[in-house]
Structures are given as structure tokens and as C-alpha cells.
Amino acid sequence: MKNNINPKSYTLIKYLLTISMLFFYLIGILGIVYSIKTKNSINYDDFWVSNYYYLAVVCLFIAIMSAVSYLIIRNYMHKNSGHKFNKKEKIYTYCYSFSFIVVIFFTLIIIFAKEFAGSSLLIVDSVVLFVVFAIGIEISLLETYSRITEQALINKMWFLRKEQEKNEAINETIKENNIEKSENKKVELKDKKDKNPFMEE
């Protein structure tokens, strides 16, 4: 089985997942900041109050794009790895993929909570942020469990390929050295014949 997947790719794409969740969390923090700023009165001159929706939508866009990019790349890597998910790995993958939808739903609640939560806004935002944080941990764990076997397979194949390339390079070097020695012997024999007085007569 041949593939060109570098094992480090699994670590690199995990950053996309981390970035996605960080921006989901950031939306929750923005909601809490907004609720604190507007607890007594709404001051539209305040940066966090006047730009709340703008900042929240930008964070949501980055979070969703990072999550979608992660899922696409992860699916591409899985198909090219040659590994087939077992029943548990399929469940883990479906669960953490669906959890993104749940996180988006709760994030939207945080964004629009100020429209219906009233004086309970801070409580609503805090509780929902805690739920999003818990789901984020669940996503991270399930994602890790879903790729353990696959990544181990890729690590093994990468190691074997590197060993094969190393052995091929060594054999090529030995072959070149043998050719060079053979050429040198031919030159030495030719020189001996040229210097032989009986050959000159």
C-alpha cells in the first residue's frame, strides 16, 4: 500500500480544529462581555456593544470555515490512508462531526440571547458557553480516538518507506563505489601494461 501522507499532517490539521473551537469559545466570551457592559444600561458608544454583532459574525464565520476545512482535509487524508474505520471509529467520527452542528446551534443562542434573555443574559451566556466548552472537549477526544489506529498505520508505513529509501541510497552508493573501484583497477592494469618493457618491444 503506497501513500504520501506525512504523519505530521495529522498534527497540523488538528490546529484547524483547535482554531475553530477557540473562535466558538470567543463568541461566548464576547456574549459575556456584552452582557456585563449592558447590565445597567446600553452604551452604544462602547466598542464591544456597538460592534457586538459584527465581531460575533466574523468569529462565527472563521470558526465554521476552520471546522469545514478540517473535516474536508481529514476526510481526504482518511481516503488516501487506505485505512477502513471499524464500527467504533465510525461512531466516533459521526459523533464529533455532528457535534459541530450542535456547537453552531448553541453559539447562535449566545449571539442572539440579548434579544430574548433580558436581565438573565449573563446567566444564559455563561451556561451556554460552559456547554459549548464541554462539547469542544468531547469533539477533541472523539477526534483523537477516531484516528489512533489510522495514524499508527501511517506512522508505520512512513517509517518503512524511509527505511527503504535509506537502504536504496546505501545500495546505490555501494554500487557507485564498486563501479569506481572497477574503473580504477582497469586504469591501473592499463598503466602497468604501458610501463611493461616487454610490452614496449
Summarize the structure.
The protein is mainly α. The protein contains six helices and no strands.
Structural class: mainly alpha
Write down how many β-strands occur, each being a DSSP E stretch of 2 or more residues: 0
- Biggest beta sheet summary: none
The share of residues in extended strands comes to under 5%
> What gyration radius follows from the Cα positions, in whole Å?
31 Å
SSE topology string: HHHHHH
Tally of contiguous helical segments = 6
Distance between the termini: 66 Å
Average pLDDT, rounded to a whole number, is 81
Poorly predicted segments = none
Shape: elongated
Q: How many domains, in number, for the residues?
A: 2
Helical fraction: over 70%
What does this structure look like?
It comes from Spiroplasma helicoides. This is Transmembrane protein. The protein is an all-alpha fold. It has six helices and no strands. The longest helix is centred in the C-terminal third of the chain and has 75 residues, at about 120-195. The termini are far apart.
Fold topology:
Elements: H1 8-37, H2 47-50, H3 52-81, H4 87-112, H5 121-195, H6 197-200
Helix pairs in contact: 1-3, 1-4, 1-5, 3-4, 4-5
Using brief descriptors, characterize the structure shown:
201 residues, mainly alpha, 2 domains
